[in-house]
Amino acid sequence: MINVLIADDHAAVRTGLVLICEGADDITVIGEAADGVDAVEQTLRLRPDVVVMDIRMPRLDGISATERLAGSCDVLILTTYGSNAHVFAALAAGAAGFLLKDTDADTLVEAIRVVARGDGLISPAVTRDLIKEFGRRRPRAEAAGLSLLTGRERQVFARLGQGMSNAAIAADLSMAEATAKTHVSRVLTKLGLRSRVQAAILAQESGIQL
């Protein structure tokens, strides 16, 4: 089962999200939070696999909450705000996925599964502009870190740039999925990135070839 925590300041939205999540056989909601502080506290206490996080919430916004939870769980941002600034801030904070609230129920459920597997996901509606924005703002330190990657890690990095999942990377490079996941983690560490989504965008902007 995928354990999920829902963080949104609107009670009606939380109720709807709970119904959507629990309509899936492999997802269970173990907590709800109405603000960012509560989301952080509950996440650290309950240890969900995925937190579905709104951006604008009282006491602590979803971006700041995501940053505090980096490394503790996978965060899927679900918001009405799809501007470049919001998307970039969410991914820079370490979010594993970003969806808009007009996403249908089936897509949301599948997104939770994708994030829980350790893969990344961005709403198609914001992807093109996001890549341009990330490339414009990217710190030089991240690009410089490419020289630290081993040959195998560069192969994995290139495939992240193609949007491949861990399973797809493993199949393409003839390795176990667990090994692919380990390589992805090492790539993130060496490049100083918080999520595979950041790595995928950086790989595209860096022109890394398969």
UniProtKB/TrEMBL annotation:
The modification 4-aspartylphosphate is found at residue 54. Residues 3-116 form the Response regulatory domain. GO terms for molecular function: DNA binding. It comes from the Bacteria. Residues 142-207 form the HTH luxR-type domain. Keywords: DNA-binding, Phosphoprotein, Transcription, Transcription regulation. GO terms for biological process: phosphorelay signal transduction system; regulation of DNA-templated transcription. This is LuxR family two component transcriptional regulator. It comes from Stackebrandtia endophytica.
